[in-house]
Design goal:
Elements: H1 3-46, E1 56-66, E2 73-80, E3 83-89, H2 97-113, E4 121-126, H3 129-135, H4 147-162, E5 166-171, H5 178-190, H6 200-204
């Protein structure tokens, strides 16, 4: 191959690489920005919710189903800016850990909606990869019985977004979610002594999605 032909091929390759880099740059920048933002929010949560941005709210959630994963009662725990709370759900044959996690997320979102002054940015972290990735659209919700729970959480998030709030939902490891985990356990162990979560009945009567 002569030098002029080789130069032409190299020029075409360089142009294609430049176009590819230009197309990927916004996506890559957004991915890096989110990674850094999540890392900073995780650090705040690990530091007992101290040192966060003044215009942001930091929350965690966790759910438990017991004494068995299927068919137990549910304990729902969540933390908003270091303040924990919990709810209890009576035992049902179709209760699961995933329902508990969704229930805890919905309780957290509902509590945020009832705050007198909601900051513009809300960070919410949970240790259930399934729930976090389903809400973020990375996983499909393949279990039909979870559709009302997923839809209920999405509806609450949409209410916050409609009010001009920005939500960042992300995964944290269980060891960084100890306070929400503790309160989910407290609710479960209380056998109904803590307040009950009554919204579950509304979810169970919602029409199922069409296949």
């Amino acid at each position: 191959m002569d030098a002029s032909k080789l130069a032409e091929i190299n020029a075409i390759r360089a142009e294609l690489n430049a176009r590819h880099a230009q197309a990927e740059t916004p996506k890559l920048k957004a991915g890096i920005a989110r990674r850094d933002e999540v890392a900073a929010a995780t650090k705040v949560i690990r530091n007992d919710f101290k040192g966060g941005l003044p215009h942001a709210l930091y929350c965690t959630f966790d759910g438990a189903c017991g004494p068995t994963n299927v068919g137990g009662a549910l304990g729902l725990g969540w933390v908003i800016s270091g303040q924990p709370d919990c709810r209890y759900v009576v035992r049902r044959g179709d209760n699961t850990n995933n329902r508990a996690e969704y229930g805890a997320l919905m309780c957290c979102l509902d509590a945020v909606l009832h705050l007198p002054n909601i900051p513009p940015t809300i960070y919410i972290a949970g240790d259930s990869q399934v729930v976090v990735k389903q809400i973020n659209g990375q996983y499909h919700v393949r279990t039909a019985s979870l559709h009302p729970w997923h839809d209920g959480a999405i509806a609450l998030m949409q209410r916050l977004r409609a009010a001009g709030r920005r939500l960042v939902l992300f995964h944290i490891y269980r060891e960084h979610n100890q306070l929400a985990d503790e309160y989910a356990g407290r609710a479960l162990a209380s056998n109904g002594a803590v307040p009950r979560w009554t919204a579950q009945s509304d979810l169970l009567t919602r029409p199922r999605r069409k296949p």
